[in-house]
Amino acid sequence: MNHPLSRRAALGLSITGALAAGAAKPSRAQSLNRVARIINGFPPGGASDNVARLYAEHMRGVYAPQVIVEARSGAGGRLALEAAKGATPDGTTLVHMAAGQFTIYPHIYRRLAYDLSDFIPVSPVVSYPQSLVVKADHPARNLAEFTEWAKRRNGEISYGTPGAGTWTHFMTMQIARALGLGMTHVPYRGTAPALQDLLGGQIHAVSCTAGDATELYRAGALRILGISAPERAPRLPEIMTYAEQGYPELTSEEWFGLFLPARTPGPVVEAAYQAVLTAAAKPELRAALERMEYRVTTSPPAEFAARVRAERDHWGPVVAASGFQAEE
For this UniProt entry, which residues form the secretion signal (predicted)? Predict the structure, then answer.
């Protein structure tokens, strides 16, 4: 699955309304003289929280005198977005969110209390690939061998994900379709319990971010059959990408990004973006993120907005074909 995002941006995908006013035109950056907060939609200590805190630390003194992270977990990130949507659009409140809340959720929830038009995308901050993992003693070492093994079992294969309706859920549906396999989805509340059941033999595979599997892989408990990144991961150079294994259509990366409420003044949006660039250039931040298997990723607000819209359009038919609808 290749998202033609950069090509669409280059062709001038139009950004309208608040996005155009707040981000598409160059403006003089205007940093804040008061405390800013980054609302994060997931619990403290998790991957999203760690990334948000790293950026907050390095945006401090650049974007605002203090930048703090406020956890607002619940409803898969929706509570954080609802809180940020209602914040005063003066730059003091940003929200740190994963792609799926903007690109997949609109297709699986019949009623959402927010829309992309309620926010101005500032920049992505990291991106990360999906991986398909099995136990270390599994006979398959790559997608081709996994396919052969699965077909010998008449397709009676189960896979776990961190939850129904997640990016990894729909990524694995696309993997199964590409491999010609029927695989049963087993949703969990997070990656850790899914990996625990994999190691216990209750399920056959787990679809998760590469970073979530790395520790157990290096400990010799798991085998990673491939990753969805466009290139091999620097810290996992021995793991082939899906494209290298003959499935370029499975190339995809999830991201975390920063957003401001709609109607935030253009100079403030520009200041937030410049602060992200300053943070992303810090060697210590990059090193910390790379240890967690994240790739530092930034892009200007207008380009980021185009990417979010293009990915949202991409996932619509995928979700529709699956027939999946989340519980309200």
Answer: 1-20
